[in-house]
Records
---
Amino acid sequence: MLNSFQPHAFTYLTLPDLPKIPDHLVQQGLRLIAEGQQEKQNLSTPYVDPGKKYARDRHGEYFSRDRKLVSEKTGLETSPIFNTTYNMDQAWTDWVHENITSVFYESGIRVTDSYDTESKYYGPHTDGAKFKLFYLVDPGHEATTTVFYLEKDQPLVRNLRDEFDIQIANNLDDLTIIDEVRLPCNTWVLLNGYIMHGVHNCLPGRRIHFFINMPAERVVHSIRIQ
Ligand SMILES: [Fe+2]
């Protein structure tokens, strides 16, 4: 029952016992990205996503190319980085189902390309009312961190209506960092989408991860921890 579900106040949990993704599936994902990069090089604008573009949030701001992150304290004004999502095939879906979780509604591979941009930030956001299983294949740059925030006048665990209720924060002065981590590669990590989070130090590189989005209220019973 979604209404009675209270998400826990964790930021992330590493799950080292969950199976590694088989190499042939990793290679399949990397091929999709490489083909997308070729496609991107042929486009006149560097900001058009060649892969599937999500545009489902209620406010249209999370994905807006006009979004600006600001800080009066540091004088920062910058556009955030965006990422590109690629769908995997049925073999991937079957593997996830058999090895990782029986309950998910969305998964794939994502690349955050910071070669084309001056910005060092992936913008602060919630994921909507969901938990995300995250598996980093390439950190992009070794200094890149995943950051969790408490926003001024907001609860740490946000009250989100559904999995599409993505909330954002653009003023970094309103955010207090409560946790910051260099996520490990080739290890599943459970991220709490109810807590505002983003990515810092997106120095030149291609950060690549697999993701599995799950309805939060059923996660505890669905992950296939041995
Ligand atoms: Fe997120």
---
Amino acid sequence: MKSARRNWQRKKRKRKKGGANWRSRIIPQGLKRPLLNKKINSSLPFSQTKNTRCHGDFPHGFYYEDKTMITASNIALSYGKRVIFQDVNIKFTPGNCYGLIGANGAGKSTFLKILAGQLEPDRGQISKGPGQRIAMLNQDQFAFDEVTVFNTVIMGHKKLYRVMAEREALYAKAEFSEEDGIRSGELEIKFGEMDGYEAEAEAAVLLSGLGIPERMRQKKMKELDGSDKVRVLLAQALFGNPGILLLDEPTNQLDLDAIRWLEDFLSHFQNTVIIVSHDRHFLNQVCTHVADIDYGKIRIYVGNYDFWYQASQLHFRQKETESKKVKAKAEELKGFIQRFSSNASKARQATSRKKLLEKLTLDDMPTSSRKYPYIVFKPERPCGDIILEINGLSKEIEGVSLFEDLNLTVNKGDKIAFVGTNSLAKTTLFQILAGELAPDKGSFRWGVTIKNAYFPKENNGYFGNGELDLIGWLRQYAPPKEDASFVRGFLGKMLFSGEEAMKKTSVLSGGERVRCMLSRMMLSGANALILDEPSNHLDLESITSLNNALIAFPEVVLFASHDHQFVATVANRIVEITPEGIIDVMMNFDEYLAMKEAALSGENIYQERQAA
Ligand SMILES: Nc1ncnc2c1ncn2[C@@H]1O[C@H](COP(=O)(O)OP(=O)(O)O)[C@@H](O)[C@H]1O
Ligand SMILES: [Mg+2]
């Protein structure tokens, strides 16, 4: 580690002297993250720009000191026989935001832990600028149970928190000795240097941006529900302008508003950010680079996720063509060898071709760990004219009204996204429509031609004690006349083939369970699909496949999702459930957001006029 640091300093000195290298410290303008909404910008913590030295008169943009760079050299890690990383050499530079992507189990979380120093690799080292603070989103929801929400956020900057706590203890003393006076002077200096005086305001901005209201700030963490805890832990990671910010799936428990706020925050963040996420819209909004883990290596691409996806598809097709050529060549060689190996005059040629053949097989590319499941929903019959009528539906849970007097007519071809901050309202409505829950008041009626299939948000109840294997489990939902090979077909499409299909459901991961639930939905032949947050546990490949399947589905879809791209590309009608009733509009999600924004700014103008 020491020698790495020396190396780094040597390199830095060299760079200072050499004039030619200054360009490497300039972020090309095309790569700079766009400054989004100015209004939100003004509410961002002031200290965000502190680590950056801007020389505005540079013609090409800004000049950054590279002290927030982080470098991984020769990293290798294996678990038993399984090689996760092999010779990973990679440099993350400040001002950039890297989306770290890769298949389930490729090693994304592991790599972040290695960068953060929480996990020692088998070989290689991590080096970063001296004194640079790394902040990582804490994955343990119970780690701060006894701490208040506010203090949990401040604890993101441990040094500052220690100074703050000592300072407070000192001022709480009844008697203040001379020694205490000296100590308090020292503490005030340290406190000031670390922007302690702005800490409270900064924490407040982060918490309210992430949807934690003021009244909750003095509550203990254990009093919060899971989704609120995640928001506080996220505020903790963002707090105090860390030099290097590592976020593992930060959007998982956030609603669309909080995700938009985070996108904005990260777009203005000037230091180094590395993010793992399954949310393509989010990645596209914030990433300047994509770091792709595959074949045990990490490769960096300039550009956002969509750009990476296009480039990788092209690369994949090229590889496929290449491998077809190689196979054809190998066949040709094999043929020659067979025909002529017993022929003395051709024996030498046959031997040399044997060598060629061996070389061809040796040079075979390792296969990618990425796999795209094949998702397609085929309705048994098209929908008739009457789809679904909802009349005066009301439901309360534990004394809280979720919706009241809800009326809705679903038409042919509707793909409705249910949005709104109250996810319990959406989940409850879907449960009622799927016949799993009774409403308090009102009624609903599906048309006679309609067969619906429901994908619940929580699927524990569907797996019982986990004793069945996947084939047995899925057969429960298949027509009785069908045999095991029928369900095997659906499992195979969802990447459970051969042995995999014999696993007990009790060993399945969250993502695998979701794939089972999707197989169940695929074999139903339904013409109206109800999906509650289907992308939650899926990897990017599965989300892309599911997204494409729902775009292609010719009939009716009712769904809720926190994945912006999913909602924006599937829905042709938006229903927002608000405490005052529903907003129901025939438009796509981006049009809907634009409409809302315009309406909100109109409201502001109106208020300003009244005030004037
Ligand atoms: N302590 C461990 N022992 C053995 N295998 C592990 C351990 N931690 C992680 N793994 C395996 O390493 C792989 C990478 O895990 P992880 O980094 O969590 O993947 P992901 O890319 O999904 O975040 C997975 O196959 C996981 O099962
Ligand atoms: Mg992970």
